[in-house]
């Protein structure tokens, strides 16, 4: 490790030491520089900006479909998270993508319906994105980026993020690439894996089949024209992700069956 990168890591450690320490839903220690209220407000502002700049569907079957899945998943969150002003939007965009922002704002592209073949698979991707919100990943991300770059624009991070972008434009020049590859990207992969775990459990608790999460990613691979190597990506390698989802699914089957027996039988769409 070079002296510049060593200095960067020590500077980040000092800055993070001044942040609030919290624990994620999976028990991981997190460092937050912002309050939930600040992030929720900025998430709502970013969501409104995105809706003003991109074409969205109004009403219709797909909006009702997404809203139904979101409602079923949100009902499995703790009361303080259920009480957020959850809002959904369907963006007219052929790319298979979905995202969620602090404050309970969920967006799904129309292209996702070509990849998510049924309500369980749509719940897999939306549950993953809700998992990011529940685990305060945006706060964690921008807090770490603030420690890395003195020029961070938090609103820009929120408006630009769909949890698949590297955020390289948020890191200052001079040591920025070292921070991006050595610190920010591995951290984002940790968040992605955690969101998978949270989302798959939310699925099961809501009465969606958790085994369908792996099927969703098989469909994503089939629809993909290729991807970057895992070590240069914010997302885990798809095959590694599928193996993790498949390995977790059997332990969640009793949760899924108990949810169905308790009356959690969502009927949202395909």
Describe this structure in words.
This is Peptidase. Pfam families: Peptidase_M48. Residues 1-20 form the signal peptide. 57% of the residues lie in helices and 8% in strands. With 270 residues, it is mostly helical. The strands form two sheets. The chain has a three-stranded mixed beta sheet. Strands 1-2 form a two-stranded antiparallel ribbon. A hairpin with a 5-residue loop joins strand 1 and strand 2. Helix 1 crosses helix 6 and helix 9 runs antiparallel to helix 10. Residues 1-17 and 150-184 have low confidence and may be disordered.
What fraction, in percent, of the residue positions are helical? 55-70%
Poorly predicted tracts of residues: 1-17, 150-184
Averaging pLDDT over every residue, what do you get?
80
Order of helices and strands: HEEHHHEEEHHHHHH
The main sheet orders its strands as 3-5-4
Overall body shape: globular
Classification by helices and strands:
mainly alpha
Total DSSP E strands? 5
